[in-house]
Structure formats: C-alpha cells, structure tokens
Amino acid sequence: ALRAMAMAKWGQILIDSGHESDAKTTIWPLIKFDLEWVTENWDSTGCDLWEEVRSDDFFFNRMAFIYCLNAAADFADQIGESLGASYRSVADDVRAVITKHWNGNYLYESENRPDDGATIHAITTFSLDLYTPDSEEAAATIRYLVKAFCNEYPINQEDNDAGDPGILIGRYPNDSYAGGNPWQLLTAILAECFYAGATITRKKMETRGNYQLSSTENAQWMALLNLDAGATASDLAAAQVSAGDAVLTRMHNHIKADGGKVDEQIDKYTGKQASAENLTWSYANILHALHTRKGLSPDPPGPTTTTAKTTEGGPTNNPTDPTANPTDGPTDAPPQTCCSSVMFESTGAIGTSNPELVGSYRRIGTDATGRSVYKKDDVYLHYVNDVAYKFEAWVFSSSADDLMGDVVNEDTNKCVDATASTWEI
Questions:
Q1: Among 51, 91, 153, 400, which residue is least crowded by beta carbons within 10 Å?
Q2: pLDDT tens digits for 165-178?
Q3: What is the per-residue burial (b if ≥16 Cβ within 10 Å, else e) of 223-232?
Q4: Residue 253: exposed, middle, or buried by beta-carbon count in 10 A (0-12, 13-18, 19+)?
Q5: Quick one: CA dihedral 409, 413, 416, 418, positive or negative?
C-alpha cells in the first residue's frame, strides 16, 4: 500500500512535468499490481509496524490502507483509469471497521498491543478526514501516551526536573528492543502532529474567525495544553505550535552534539543516541516535521531571550475611566481597576532604546485570560501565557498574538496598571 501511494505521488509529479505517458505506461501498472493484493487482503493477518506481533486489525495499517487507496484512486482518475471508484469503495470498507479503535479514552493500535506510538504516526501521516491531527481523539491519544512515556523514561523525568520543555516518546511502554528507549522518529512525528493540528486550526479560523473553544468539543485539547475556559482558536493554534517546538527542542538537546547525525534511539538513562546509526526514517520524520512547521507562527520564546534588565517606570492607570463593560471578554472579566487607557513612562534604558513604547495606550479588547489588551500606534501591550515554556508576562510587541516581546514584565497581575515598575529588555 505504501509503495502504491508513493508511486501515485510520483506519477502525479510526472504528469505535472509533462510526462503523462510515462505515468500511464510505467507507474500505473505498478500501482495496480500492488493494490490488487491490498484490495483482496486488507483484512488478513499481518505484522505490526515494528514487525513484532501479528493481527488482522492494526490501526496503523488500516489508516495506511485508507490513505493509500484514496491516493491511488485520485491518480487513476487523473489518467483516465476506471479503478478509482473500486479503490474508494474498499477504503470505505476499511473506514467502517477502524472506528472501533477508539475505546472512549484513546485510539489503540491492536488488541494484543493497544498502547503504541504507531497510532500517533498514523494520525499524523495518514489522516484525511478521519482522526485528523486536530481531532479530540488525537489529543486524547497524545495525552494518554505521553503520560506513559514520561513515566517510562528516566531521561524525561530528569529533563522535567531541569525545567526543559517537551517530551521524548518511544514505540510502546515496556519495550525491550535494544533497551526500550525513546525513538527520534516517533518524537519527531509527535511534534509534527502538533504542527499539523495548528495548521488545521488556523485553516478553520479563515472561515470561522477567532472562535471561542468549547468545553465539550475541544475538551481534550484544552486539557492537553492547559488552556483555560474562554480560550480561543488563536490560543489553541499558538499552544499547538509551542508544544511541537518544545518536543523538537528536547530531542535536539540530546542529539545536537553529534554533528547532525541522527540515530534510531536515545538512551533512556544517559540521554545519548543509541542503536541503529544514521537511520533514514529518523531523518525523514524530522525533516517532514520541520517542513510542516515552516510558515507557522508565532515563534515561541527561547529560554534565554532576556538579555538585559533595568528598572523602569511602568504603565500608570487612569482612575477616572475604569473598564465600563466587564463582559467584553470570553472568560472572567478583568477587575474594575483595569482602565480603558494606561500611560507607559520611562526615563531609563527602555525609553532611550525603545522610545516608541513610551506614551498612552488605549484598551482595544480582552484576551482569553480575561486581561485587557492595549494598543498605541502599531505597538500592542498585552499578556502572554506560553504553556510550553511556562512563561507568563505582560509584553510590548507588534501583534496581540505574539508570545514574546522586546520588553516584558513577568508580573502576573490581572491588570497591567497593577504591575511593578520592573520591566526587562
């Protein structure tokens, strides 16, 4: 099935480059040959992704069948072959039985190995309109498996204690192959799943706007990413991107000393690379995750963004004009001490190096945390809560969606006029 899918995509490339004859005479016979077996044997007993256990009902395999049959069907239609409808019919048959893999808590791989990182790989790689990376089932499955892998690998606990973001995941709990360690290719696919979810969330926003998340329809994602009631689609997309970045950051921390070489596993005790060296699958998944990440924004802050510190005069309130309507925001309203305008004053380094920040800011709305958002010209003064990096602060930035600004104040007060006067460059 995977070979047929790859050939179908190559055939499309040939067509697009003016070689339709080669696509029909060379590529199509190979696709047809492979799918003759798939259409007759998709429900037969076979091996799992790791070639260790046997079943006739692997989630990864069936997601692959659905994806590949539809890809081949599209190619068949493109070149005028009649088997497209037949391929789609078989894909629908597979779809009809795969839904039982949702057990109400997470998507399981097979009855003889339910907990398996292959499910995250399948969701990320093969989803069309079933169990997509932004789905509640995807979030629930990630939430379930990352908890298991966090407990499974001492290196995860060590990194957590050090305050390093992210998680390393492996094949399945209690894996014994080559020590039973985290796998780079699966950790990368987890990051890509977050990025793919963010991509879909942003696509939805094109038609729905910055809609408020539902405590029922988005419950799993809100729980996974620690999003509070009243969070919006923009909050979700930003948190998904940050989560993906955190996962890749943790993996990079353990492989960066090897000059770009990426192996199969990361030792669960030492954090060093282990097992098969220069694994093609690892490279492919990392590159695909980075490709999916490309173009997504905003970029979350790094752990060493703050480079200088200075004590400055902060925003001062306008007590004669309190917030008039406490229901403007989607969540708990800001306290009545929040003002419709604030003045930022500085006679120190910030005022000298960032004079555009000095002046009066007017309140333009409320964010997902219930805090006011202010603006002056093209500068926004707003609150940031970056879950992945455990960073909270009031910031000045060029967008209300930014997760870091050039000047920040790490007070967590509900109102900016209640913050201390210590701001940082």
A1: 51
A2: 999 999 999 999 99
A3: ebbebeebbb
A4: middle
A5: negative
